[in-house]
Amino acid sequence: MTAASVGETVLEVQDVSKRFAGVVALDGVSLGLRTGEVHALVGENGAGKSTLIKVLTGAYQPDHGRIVYRGEPVTFARPLDAQAAGISTIYQEVNLVPVLSVARNLFLGQEPTNRLGLIDFAQMHRHTTAILQRYGISVDVRRPLRELGLGMQQMVAIARAVSGDHRVVIMDEPTSSLEPREVERLLEVVDLLRRGGVAVVYVTHRLEEVFRLCDRVTVLRDGRLVHTGPVADISRLELVSRMLGREVAEVARGETRFSDRKTDQATQPILRATGLTRRHVLDHVSVEARAGEVVGLAGLLGSGRSETAKAIYGAQPLDSGSVEVEGAPIRPGSPRAAIAAGLALIPEDRKAEGIVPMLSVRDNIVLAALPRMSRAGFVSERHQDAVVKGLITRLRIKASSPDQKVSELSGGNQQKVLLARVLCLDPRILILDDPTRGIDVGAKAEIQMLISELAEQGMAILLISSELEEVVEGSDSIVVLRDGAVVGQLRAEEVSQDGVMGLIAAARRESDSLPASGGGIEGDATEVDGHVGD
Amino acid sequence: MSATDLAPGRRAIGRADVADWVAARGVYLGLLLLVVFNLVFTPRFVEVDNIRLQFVQVVPVAIVALGMAVVIGTSGIDLSVGSVMAIASALLALYIGYGPLVAITIALLAGAAVGVLNGVLISRFGIQPIVATLALLVGGRGLALVIAQGRLTEMFDPVLGAIGSGQFFGVPIVVLIALGVALVVAVLVARTTFGRYVVASGGNPDASFLAGVPVRRTLLSVYVLSATLAASAGIIQTARLSAADPSFVGNLIELSAITAVVVGGTPLSGGRVRIVGTLAGAMLMQLIAATLISHNLPDSVTRMVQAVIILGAVFIQRPRIAA
Amino acid sequence: MTATTSDRDPTLHLIGDPGEATRAANRRERLARILQRGGAFIVLIVVTLLASLVFGTRFASIDNFLNILEASSFLGLVAVGMTFVIIGGGIDLSVGSLLALSAVLAAFGSQYGTVVAIALPLGVCGLIGLFNGVLIARARMAFFIVTLAALLFARGLAFAVSNEGNKIFHINEDLAVIWLGQGSVAGIRVPIIIAGIAFLVGWVVLTRTRYGMAVTAIGGNEDAARLMGVPIARVKTVIYLVSGLLAGLAGLLVAARSSSGQSTIGVGLELQAIAAVVIGGTLLTGGSGSIAGTLAGVLLLNVINNVINQVGTLNSYFQQVVSGVFLIIVVLVQRYLSREQRL
């Protein structure tokens, strides 16, 4: 095959929209991919990245708009069709068969056969070795894939993806679980693909990779395309602010912070997490919170913010580090022990880790508090009903009755059910991981009000949000994370969007030569705010 | 993936809704139709003796099915119940010389021990329920046969005799025992924290773990419960026959029990336990067998019909995949 | 298949050695592979040698070995099918009943001649296997429910045909079909030869064909296999079809061997087959296994059975206990060895 001339548009998304049960996931997104470019696709939770990828690969059909591939409109009914047409995807989790050998994985379904129809292993192994050597990998291709490191597995996935006539390769956060050395290797391989004329869509949340590797960048937010253009033309800070920028609908609430408390920094912290460490996940993260204080955990997706929350709660395995509540250490690795110590968590992924879909609203609410709502193992229905009804009213949960299945509620009401669940525990420390993600504006405002109210009543709160504005407005102090480590903490008056973005965007290496501090940031940020806000 | 991706669209009442209704409540309709059929076409159906016989015969399956329902509620399965019945039966014969109370206690404890083994393999070592309990299904019956030396042992113990064929105001004692067990399990499922933990662990183990539910302990308890109930079913069966026959007792009962549970509206995917439905399911299968037999259809046909019914019930309950 | 990148610029230095984290896992992996591939063979050899020492020529004679081989051939046929089922991520519980059904149908059909005696059992068992496959692969029903129901149905059908098990059909000794069970070629009995061929074909298909690769891939990671273009439903359906056919073939041979078809045989055979397959090193979770290991597993179970029979004091039910214990130990070892390190 001859390499296509660089710069020709090979795949075009034209005004694509997609909605699910009334929620807009993609809203009129247009995007062109050129041969020989690495195109970064960035955005926070719920920005629409996954939906866009699924539309491109045929897993979803767009409600509106079309996809033009090599100059012709196309419809992919399923991922295999897209693959056959030459668009392949490399998923976050390597999607190969770990127990099969490297060579079998590379050739599955296309094994070379001899005249008898039997697989010619000698030839298959020779070919595999040759192909992998082009990517700088020299391994025994007869060994099971799972014996290789994740990075090399990723490389095999890429080698498989670009075999045959593949012109577009979509990579969904390919480096998220790799070790640093493997990341280097992967970036080199992506560069190799680019030079071979392949168009690469590179989904990532690591700014370093965007600026080091990518030619152009597209930012999605709330299903809309908010920026697309050459990487060279955008500053690190601009990019961060476009990813995190405020939402138009939120302007109505004005500029006032929903937290106006003054916590006494001299009092002893009720929660003290020290040196939380997990290889390649968390690096000596320490967080403190006082009674009545809202501490924000800021950082991009994948910065370690959710992992920190789970580590404090005992749901993330740690290599080292300790969590103390009022000076008393909590047994690690046990959410049950954490709950007993006065902690409560609302996890990031409501569906997978929050609700129990087949159970009723009532059962979901009381689930965590069952031990204290029962006597000798018997559930006290009356006690339970009183609590549940009170919470349904207080949080204004819209359910036909406490017996309604929780899976039938809207996202916002499901989130309120989870809030009710933790309130039942009457916790002293509440950890909220993106509590307003993917819910409607009304419920969002109510939840934010509630957070503020709870803090005023003396609860210590750790708040994580995909929206920078929410963290900044809601928090008394903010711990900023990047690559699993704390890069700075902002207290009281220092808390501002610019401050957080400055810390997130600050270059890791001097060679990256980006504005790191001072007036430049503020100037840029204001400009960006104005641009995005209208 | 965005949080809203999986929200199902609402439509008018369609085939899916009908299937849902049949899955959840169909068993009662089936039972009703069957009773009506028998009232009309089966002579001597309403006689006391016949009714008593139907209830007595359903007891072992019903008791095993109750335990199975709880296991299935955690999205597990227990294939070892038949072998546990055989072990209990063999031990009962072995220790009956020490008096019925000792023998019964040992048989129940042995059942619980098998349950602990199942539960530990599943909850601690992460072995899939079907595999762990399959190993016990293979080894358990062999063990029972080894204990009994492959022989049928007749027993003439007054206490066992009373359990097996005694009556209380005309109601067979085994039926009373079964009702008692059903009541206990029903209370356990509906009124205790354990019951909530069962359905929560089955419905979403990750969320349950984060909500502080002791998921592992719950799994362990569930298999102990199931095996202990199976052991009591084995004791009852032995008492009724006045003989321990480990090569026969509980044969294929795992299938009957699973059928009763699934027909009764408990989904195999877990997250829900229907006690009354399970009892109705067991009764339905019993009545089908009785109906076929009383209309001179042989046992073999009954088996085939049972196979078809279980496939139908599971087919209706199978998880529907979004387009 | 060629990679598109025509880049020949050798700027990338070759890397090969795995990271430190994976090295320990690799050691375990190698140990796992040795145990998985050779474990059953090693135990088989040890048990055979021990038995030879203890029992002398009562055990270690050509005749006795041929007996063991013949006894193994029926279980072996079933186990070959079961190996594919388990590697593909499922279990087929219906094989014992299918074997009985096949034996009954073969004997029943023999009154209409050899062709019917062969075609009827194979046709019916194949059909039930196909039905299993369709329900599991297309309707996505749980495999143990489907095959348990098939177990019940096939046994019921066998009883229905044989007047509730009371009628035992006999096969006329003059019929050619008898040769399948009682004939011999060069001094080796036909069932042994047929089972040998099945193992050979099974080995070639599993290790040397695209179909074998597809089966392994499905068991290893069904979602990935689907994304990689493997026709999941078709491959799975064929797995259960073949398992049914092989159980049918085994039943046919049993009938020919005993000149009769009884509806009560083969109870618990599915469990023996599963035990043999798993002892032979096939992962019960699917995705990995070997036909040669299954052969060793089948022989091992039959050698143990033979030994138990030699020891007068142990009753034959002991074999089931041994199978069950073996199963638990092997599964635990597999679980321990295959535990992957997660980040």
Describe the model.
The complex is a heterotrimer of chains A (534), B (323) and C (343). Chain A has 534 residues and is of the alpha/beta class. Chain A folds into four domains: 7-86 and 167-245, P-loop containing nucleotide triphosphate hydrolases (Rossmann fold); 97-164, no CATH class; 271-342 and 428-532, 3-Layer(aba) Sandwich (Rossmann fold); 355-426, no CATH class. Chain A has helices at 49-56, 79-85, 102-107, 121-134, 150-161, 180-195, 207-213, 236-244, 305-313, 335-340, 350-354, 361-366, 381-394, 411-424, 441-456, 468-474, 497-505, 519-533, and strands spanning 9-20, 23-34, 38-42, 64-69, 72-74, 87-90, 168-172, 199-203, 216-221, 224-230, 271-278, 282-289, 294-298, 320-325, 328-329, 343-346, 374-375, 378-379, 429-433, 460-464, 477-482, 485-491. In chain A, helix 5 runs parallel beside helix 6 (180-195). The longest helix of chain A is centred in the middle third of the chain and has 16 residues, at 180-195. Chain B has 323 residues and is mainly α. Chain B has a single domain (25-38, 45-317), classed as ABC transporter involved in vitamin B12 uptake, BtuC (Orthogonal Bundle), CATH 1.10.3470. Chain B has helices at 15-41, 48-73, 81-95, 100-123, 129-147, 158-165, 173-191, 193-203, 205-210, 215-241, 253-263, 275-294, 299-317, and strands at 153-154, 167-168, 171-172, 243-244. A two-stranded antiparallel sheet of chain B has the order 1-4. In chain B, strands 2-3 form a two-stranded antiparallel sheet. Mean pLDDT of chain B is 87; it is low at 1-12. Chain C has 343 residues and is mainly alpha-helical. In chain C, strand 2 (184-185) and strand 3 (188-189) form a beta hairpin. The relative contact order of chain C is 0.18. Chain C has one domain (21-308, 315-342): ABC transporter involved in vitamin B12 uptake, BtuC, CATH 1.10.3470. Chain C is built from 13 helices and four strands. The chains are: A alpha/beta (534), B mainly alpha (323), C mainly alpha (343). Chains in contact: A-B, A-C, B-C. At the A-C interface, helix 2, helix 4, helix 5 and helix 6 of A face helix 1, helix 8 and helix 9 of C.
